[in-house]
Amino acid sequence: MEGSRRARPRLILGIETSCDETAAALVTDDGEIRSSVVSSQAELHARYGGVVPEVASRRHLELITPVIREALAEAGATLQDVDRVAVTQGPGLIGALLVGLAAAKAIAWSHRLPLVPVDHLDGHVASLYLQPEPLEPPFLCLLASGGHTMLLDVRSHTEQELLGSTLDDAAGEAFDKGARLLGLGYPGGREIDRVAHEGGRGAYEFPIARVPGLDFSFSGLKTALLYAVRDLDEAELEARRADLAAAYQHAIVQALVERVHEAAERAGRDRIAIVGGVAANSALREALPDATAAPLALCTDNAAMIASAARWARPLEYPRYLALDAYASR
Ligand code: KG4
Ligand code: ZN
Question: pTM for this structure?
Answer without folding.
Answer: 0.96
